[in-house]
Inverse folding.
């Protein structure tokens, strides 16, 4: 297991009195090098949730990556067959995604404020990821248009709301859920299908620009190569382990955090 480098989310957020609780989040490591952050959506989502709380100094956050292809013996003995994300609070391990969310909301200092109630937004971002997976599988106009339609609905919501984030000018759990999925759409969609989010989705791009400027996202974001490799592995399974060339294993990690040059969003700030 390796401690992930998250400078603003580790020792730097301890208060002088030393009473800030330490939360450890175990996440999946890269399937390329077995150490850096992997491309697990749920791992990044909870990393972002907890990072925001660490920035507020309600907790001290330690993030540990585990290579699930070669998990260490102590991981197997402690957590059996349960894969990350795993949250450890005061020696107690919290397994399963729904239980982790509930624990952050009810037991982690400051967590309650992250988990706002908004049925409209919850419905809005639901099933977005399944449409990405369907597009990568089908590669047809129907699945592409279905994903585009969903993205346009999110863009329209952001236009009507006219706030920095989904529910207001403060980030919440829905943003930590949506943005990692948007990143997968950008990176995997471009790599496998040359799919790009249209530039006329101005409010969606503005939203992503705000997110790219936040440590909570950039510190938790996997490399492009890890996102690509994540879907290559899925396709290998569907193709009964037919080997695919993985050039990304030899590449220096890159991170797509740019905005199309033709979009001038500064006037929207």
């Amino acid at each position: 297991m390796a401690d992930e480098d998250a400078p603003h989310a580790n020792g730097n957020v301890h208060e002088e009195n030393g009473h800030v609780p330490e939360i450890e989040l175990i996440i999946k490591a890269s399937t390329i090098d077995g150490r850096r952050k992997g491309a697990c959506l749920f791992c990044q989502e909870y990393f972002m949730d907890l990072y925001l709380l660490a920035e507020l100094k309600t907790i001290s956050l330690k993030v540990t990556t585990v290579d699930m292809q070669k998990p260490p013996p102590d991981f197997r003995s402690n957590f059996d067959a349960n894969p990350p994300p795993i949250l450890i609070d005061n020696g107690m391990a919290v397994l399963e995604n729904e239980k982790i969310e509930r624990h952050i909301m009810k037991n982690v200092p400051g967590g309650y404020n992250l988990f706002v109630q908004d049925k409209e937004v919850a419905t809005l971002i639901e099933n977005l990821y399944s449409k990405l997976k369907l597009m990568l599988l089908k590669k047809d106009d129907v699945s592409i248009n279905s994903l585009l339609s969903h993205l346009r609905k999110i863009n329209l919501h952001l236009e009507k709301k006219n706030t920095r984030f989904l529910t207001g000018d403060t980030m919440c759990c829905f943003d930590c859920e949506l943005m990692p999925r948007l990143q997968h759409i950008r990176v995997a969609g471009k790599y496998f299908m040359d799919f790009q989010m249209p530039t006329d989705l101005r409010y969606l791009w503005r939203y992503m620009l705000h997110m790219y400027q936040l440590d909570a996202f950039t510190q938790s974001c996997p490399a492009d190569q890890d996102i690509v490799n994540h879907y290559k592995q899925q396709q290998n399974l569907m193709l009964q382990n037919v080997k695919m060339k993985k050039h990304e294993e030899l590449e220096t990690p890159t991170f797509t955090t740019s905005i199309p040059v033709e979009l001038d969003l500064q006037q929207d700030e």
Remarks:
- Confidence is low (pLDDT under 50) at residues 7-16, 240-244.
- The first strand starts at residue 2 and ends at 3.
- Strands lie at 2-3, 22-28, 60-66, 86-89, 92-94.
